[in-house]
UniProtKB/TrEMBL annotation:
Keywords: Isomerase. The lineage of its organism: Bacteria, Pseudomonadati, Pseudomonadota, Alphaproteobacteria, Rhodobacterales. One of its GO terms (biological process) is phenylacetate catabolic process. This is 2-(1,2-epoxy-1,2-dihydrophenyl)acetyl-CoA isomerase. GO terms for molecular function: isomerase activity. CDD domains: crotonase-like (cd06558). Gene3D superfamilies: 2-enoyl-CoA Hydratase, Chain A, domain 1, Lyase 2-enoyl-coa Hydratase, Chain A, domain 2. The keyword Ribonucleoprotein does not apply.
Amino acid sequence: MTRSETVLSALADGVLTLTLNRPDKLNSFNEDMHRALREGIRRAHDDSAVRAVLLTGAGRGFCAGQDLGDRDPRRGGPAPDLGHTLDMFYNPTLRLIRSLEKPVVCAVNGVAAGAGANIALACDIVLAAKSARFIQAFARIGLIPDAGGTWSLARILGEPRAKALTLTAEPLMAEKAADWGLIWKAVDDADLMDQAQALAASLAAGPTLGLGLTKRLIQDAATNSLDQQLDAERDAQQQAGRSADYAEGVTAFLEKRSARFSGR
């Protein structure tokens, strides 16, 4: 399987759909898939035709995390440098997802384990099939949660639940994840992709400049003081108020018609 086949990419109606595509390995990451996913997210940054991203997985699972097949300690040799793996592969991709000023929707089908779960949580809106489960599997193999897991879980769930999920590696089913506020919603398995595609299409047709500014503000709020956030809102609103999308939105409202946003 070539790198391009490990992540399928399709652009339609402003939505770039990226599908992790190693279903025989539950879409676990090898180096080719790392590079292919990063290329897809970079395209979303660089291509103005991309107005939203939809990330999902092929087959019966979203992503089982890192493929451990290439790291079998029974083969001997030096211990792996997993910090290097994070620096080279996971962390750059996560930074690209978080810094992309376009909406990123994740549709979680089946298991999202280890780094696979945490890549999903880095996305802006997460929908999951009711049969899906999120597993911080790191404790089972003597590792710490990576790919932003300690950051996102602590901020979203708080310290008690974050510690319990990571220290026990207990699976968290999609409906409970939604009840806890870890994801946006859990939906019937058969409806997952239809709902995720409709959501991504709606976002892509929206005022994406303002949506991108909103994403940035929400992400920065956790570390800003109130005064800093008020100033950031002022600056972003100034930019949004000068946009073609704002002019079109007000005009469409006054003319009682649907707005035709351009993302500018």
